Amino acid sequence: MKFDARVKEVIELLDENYKINTKCHLDYNTPWQLLIATILSAQCTDARVNIVTPGLFEKYPTVRAFAEANVVELEVAVHSTGFYHNKARNIILCTRALLEKHNGEVPSDIDELTALYGVGRKTANVIRGNIYNIPSIVVDTHVKRISKRIGFTNSVDPVKIEFELMKLLPEDYWIRYNSQVIVHGRNICLARRARCEECFLNHCCPKNS
What we know:
The chain has helices at 3-18, 31-40, 46-59, 63-67, 71-78, 84-102, 110-114, 121-130, 141-149, 158-168, 174-187. By secondary structure, the protein is mainly α. It folds into two domains: 3-23 and 137-208, Helix-hairpin-Helix base-excision DNA repair enzymes (C-terminal) (Endonuclease Iii, domain 2, Orthogonal Bundle); 31-130, Endonuclease III, domain 1 (Orthogonal Bundle), CATH 1.10.340. The longest helix has 19 residues, at 84-102. The mean pLDDT is 93.
C-alpha cells in the first residue's frame, strides 16, 4: 500500500470506528482548570487526574487560590499524581504568572503558553486545541507509540513527531487524532502487548503491508 493511501485509510478507519471524537479525556470546567489538570497528567493517567481534580478545584476554586497556595499543602493534594514536588511548585508559579502577565486568563499563543512553568508543547497544544479550537497535535505516550507502530514517524522526540504529523495529516484532523488514538491505545494497541488480531489498523502497519 502506498504511503499516502495508507495515511488516508488510517484516518478513515479511525473516524469510522471512533467517530469524529474530539472530547478531551481530562475533566474541567474552565480553561485554567484544564491547564492545571494537564500539568498534573504528566507521567500520570487521565483517570487518576480526574479522581484528584474535583477535590483539588474545590479546595482551590480560583487561579489566585492556587497562586497563594502553601506548597506543602498542595503537594499533599496532588501527591497521588506522582512527581508532586515539581507539579505543586509549577502550578503555583504558573498561576502566579497567569495573574501577573495575563490578568488571570490562559493565553492561546504557543510561545506565551510554553513560557509558563510546567507547560511544554504537549500541554500548550491541549489548551490550544480544546479551549481555542486552534488546530494542534498533542503528542502523548499513545500518539508517540501508535504513530511509530503504523509508520507515521521514526522519531522518538515528541516535538519532532508533532511536526512530522503536522506535515502528514490534514489540518482539520489534527485535534481529533489525539482523542481517537488515546482510545485506540487504551483498548487495542496496548504498550505492553498490542492486540494486533483485534486491530482494524493491523493491515495498515508497515510490518503487515
